[in-house]
Amino acid sequence: MKALYFSLRFWLALIGLVLLFVAAYALPFLFPVARIALFVFVALCLIEGVILFRHRKGIFARRDVTDRLSNGDENPVTIYLENRYTLPVYLEIIDEIPFQFQRRDVLFRAGLKPNETKAIRYELRPTRRGEYSFGAVNVYAMSPLQLVKRRYQFSQDKQVAVYPSYLQMRQYELLAATNRLSELGIKRVRRLGHSMEFEQVRPYTRGDDVRTMNWKATARRSGARGTDLMVNAYQDERSQAVYCLIDKGRMMKSPFEGLTLLDYAINASLVLSNIALLKQDRAGLLTFSNRIGQLLPAERRPGHMLKILELLYRQKTRFLESDYEALYATVRAHIRQRSLLLLFTNFETVNGLHRQLPFLRRLAKDHLLLVIFFENTEMAALLNQPATNTEDVYQKTIAEKFAYEKKQIVKELQQYGIQTILTAPRNLTANTINKYLELKARGMI
């Protein structure tokens, strides 16, 4: 009996019967009609109940979802349905998704012919890392009469983990392998010169830079058949250390479009680390807040990306001010080789920068430091709205002040030779990869 439910059509028909019996008190000739209608209604409900419950497994359903969801991305979820009845059925499907999504609209309707199968696909976008628990897939089956429902339950208690944005990582990886990164906003950087790492001497082909001509090799290859021009081939500097330094302090707790700044930084770090490994560099990580978190030395071994993914998955925001002095001491003690340090942090005021500037200058003295912080996109939207009253004027004035301070922070960092990126959170990954490729092409690493 727990699987027995009644449809909306059942309750409407029942209300109609009650009204018909009420009318029969005033109009006695309606009473026989009401009795016949009641008997027909009860008979139809019994017939539909027998049809639905005589098959032990009349409907089969399965939810297909990966064991890992990608944070901040649309993750596909598929529900497969199969009708094992010998007559058409009408289905209502309710998927019990994790409570973190705060959605109550995962309801689908479908009609299936005998022995027909169908797939229902929808997407979920998580905004927090961690463990998520799916409930059951509830399928309510009805015959063509649609008076009585039978409930089926499948795929209960499915546990999945929400990891940093590996879907975004795979997308960048695929486009990098096919030289199509420009589709995601990655610019082609003109090389300003040659790297110093020699690869080989090869025959000249049209389009080669004549400045790379190797005249000694050309003279050795010349003979009776004529002159074979030879050029030196160079390759990008490899095995350079690239570290992502991720600030987990209270300033990284700010949410934008559902994700915190920390999650944006984690997603960008994952993608950048993968791109660095594709460019034959070594990738490492260091997290910090009021104390030092995890340090993963820069390597390029098989399975290193899995270590990076697992380390990023466990990171959480702390609510204290970050200790940049401890960051400098850790970098000085453990990162001895000159490296590219990408510092994901956030400064809201120039005074906030001044407190940390001495430590940033010391980091920039031994390494190539790139400070990446965020625009306040909601404040930028406020600046673009017209002011209609005095309160709006005050709000826009304060917003202009904060926007100006962000630009002052960029100028002050550049004054001390520190590379900077001021970016909207949604553009963080593309802008960071662009800067990395630019620094690499200019031979600054």
Description:
With 445 residues, this protein is α/β, with parallel strands linked by helices. The chain folds into three domains: 1-163, Immunoglobulins (Immunoglobulin-like, Sandwich); 166-190 and 238-441, von Willebrand factor, type A domain (Rossmann fold, 3-Layer(aba) Sandwich); 197-235, no CATH class. It is built from eleven helices and 21 strands. The strands form six sheets. A six-stranded mixed β-sheet has the order 18-17-14-19-20-21, with helices on both faces. α3 (166-177) runs parallel beside α5, α5 runs parallel beside α11 and α7 (324-334) runs parallel beside α8. The N and C termini lie far apart (71 Å).
> Into which percent range does the helicity of residues fall?
25-40%
**Roughly what is the average pLDDT, rounded to an integer?**
87
Instruction: Please give the order of strands in the largest beta sheet.
Output: 18-17-14-19-20-21
Tell me, what's the shape?
elongated
Quickly count the domains.
Answer: 3
List keywords for this structure.
about 450 residues, alpha/beta, Immunoglobulin-like, Rossmann fold, 3 domains, transmembrane, transmembrane helix
Produce the secondary structure layout.
Elements: E1 4-6, H1 8-26, H2 31-53, E2 59-64, E3 68-70, E4 75-83, E5 89-95, E6 107-112, E7 117-124, E8 130-134, E9 137-142, E10 148-154, E11 158-163, H3 166-177, E12 197-203, H4 215-221, E13 230-235, E14 241-247, E15 255-256, E16 259-260, H5 261-278, E17 282-288, E18 292-299, H6 304-313, H7 324-334, E19 340-344, H8 350-366, E20 368-374, H9 377-383, H10 390-415, E21 419-423, H11 428-441
Parallel strand pairs: 3-11, 14-17, 14-19, 19-20, 20-21
Antiparallel strand pairs: 1-10, 2-4, 4-7, 5-6, 5-9, 8-11, 9-10, 12-13, 15-16, 17-18
